[in-house]
Design goal:
162 residues; mainly beta; Lipocalin; 10-stranded antiparallel barrel; 13% helix; 56% strand
Length: 162
């Protein structure tokens, strides 16, 4: 029994090391993220349609963009970049009306990508997971005024406009 408990504790302690070791991936591992994604969210102001598009990996990077449309008008947008550097992958976001922020990869796995910047106001983590049925489950999370907060983006793949 002691051995099992010690093995379980050792596995839990080793898990962050595994994630950190896996965080030195390459952009060309992220082909599953490329393409066009969309979801609708009901808000107090009506329906908001959110589109996110990622170019295929090339040159050590992926370029992405996002927009939110409500009542026929763009109400928000963001430019994004995932690039390789000497320390691994970095996600940089430039949201509308906000300063640019960068997040370093802390986990890269088969269909999962987690970036973190503990010094950023919100979010502190940006997460992408390849979901069931070809979905893309994106999530931002962190704290605001000491309170945990998370926003989910349950995207479905769509044909890219063109």
């Amino acid at each position: 029994m002691k051995t099992r408990v010690l093995q379980a504790v050792a596995l839990m302690l080793a898990s962050p090391l595994v994630s950190a070791a896996d965080a030195t991936g390459r952009a060309d591992q992220l082909g599953w993220l490329s393409g066009c994604w969309q979801f609708e969210r009901q808000t107090e102001r009506g329906t908001r349609l959110v589109d996110e598009q990622w170019m295929a990996p090339a040159g050590g990077a992926l370029l992405g963009s996002s927009r939110s449309v409500s009542a026929g008008a763009v109400v928000d947008f963001e430019h994004m970049l995932i690039r390789e550097d000497a320390g691994g992958l970095v996600f940089t976001a430039k949201p509308a009306r906000q300063p640019e922020a960068s997040f370093r990869a802390i986990e890269i796995g088969d269909g999962v990508l987690v970036f973190e910047n503990r010094d950023h106001d919100f979010p502190q983590r940006v997460i992408y997971r390849r979901g069931a049925d070809g979905r893309l489950d994106a999530r931002i999370e962190g704290t605001i005024k000491g309170q945990p907060r998370a926003v989910d983006f349950p995207y479905r793949r769509i044909a890219c406009p063109g």
